[in-house]
Amino acid sequence: MGQVLLVRHGQASWDGAAYDVRSDRGHEQAHLLGAALSARGIRPDLVVSGGMRRHRETVEGLVGGGGFVGVGGELDRCWDEYDHVSMLAQVPVSFAGEKPSAAEFQAWMEQATDRWIRGEHAEDYHEPYAAFTGRVEEALRRTVGGAGGTTLVVTSGGPISWATAALLGGGAALWSRLNVVCVNSGVTKLVTGRRGVTLVSFNEHTHLEGRDPELLTYR
What we know:
Layout: E1 2-8, H1 24-39, E2 46-49, H2 53-66, E3 72-75, H3 84-89, H4 102-118, H5 129-145, E4 150-155, H6 157-167, H7 172-179, E5 187-193, E6 196-204
Parallel strand pairs: 1-4, 2-3, 2-4
Antiparallel strand pairs: 1-5, 5-6
């Protein structure tokens, strides 16, 4: 029996000029997770990363925090997040300030995401929702197909939420509910065996508890 740990990247710079750059808080989240996994005797046999900068930087933090020197790594861009920038562009809004607050950004994001998943304007997007879910399912099949021991996948909230929803037999409605509660550096655990792939836990983040409350982030 093997296990696959799906890890959401550390916090990105959602309110900065370059969203894909991990924030200082995101660096600490990744380092803490690596240390927590190591303390529990978990050492990955393989680390799979999406192709985004925040994925790569989170891997670096995890490896450093856990002392996982020499662990093999693979790149799989099918674990990349959906393109939220192009989604937001389809729902133009204005804000009182120069940039949106965290609450305003979340509301804008939810409105844009709802339009995307309905599929009524699929031609407006270079990757429609159906294409996104299809590639995530392919990434999951590829990962669990080669899984032995412990495979750690550093990805984003969207792919993790769809992998979870698909394993639970859910659809877009379930995906939407899961996606908004994914914690930065949260861990979703899957096990592989004779029964195939089984979801064991979703969004575990005990490595952030009992510390600075600001380490618990969703965006």
